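ok new one. same drill as before - structure tokens go in, u give me an amino acid for every spot. 79 of them this time. try not to just spam alanines like last time pls lmao
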């Protein structure tokens, strides 16, 4: 057996909500999309949803950060 990440414990981080909001500080995916992701994370923290995998949260936050980097790069290159 390989040691794996204890996702239930990850969601119990006292700063989980703050950290998740930081990934969407510049929200390029829309408020409704973020609200669904945030609600899902909170449900996993409360163990109302299964906290085993977080691919949809990681994918959304990663995409949002990438869009932010692309826009920042374009803005710098336009000057």
């Amino acid at each position: 057996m390989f040691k794996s990440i204890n996702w239930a414990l990850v969601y119990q981080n006292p700063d989980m909500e703050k950290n998740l909001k930081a990934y969407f500080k510049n929200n390029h995916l829309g408020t409704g999309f973020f609200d669904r992701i945030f609600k899902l994370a909170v449900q996993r923290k409360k163990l109302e949803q299964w906290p085993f995998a977080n691919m949809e949260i990681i994918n959304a936050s990663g995409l949002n950060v990438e869009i932010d980097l692309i826009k920042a790069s374009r803005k710098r290159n336009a000057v």
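Residues 55-78 form the longest helix (24 residues). and btw Residues 10 and 63 are 21 Å apart (CA to CA).
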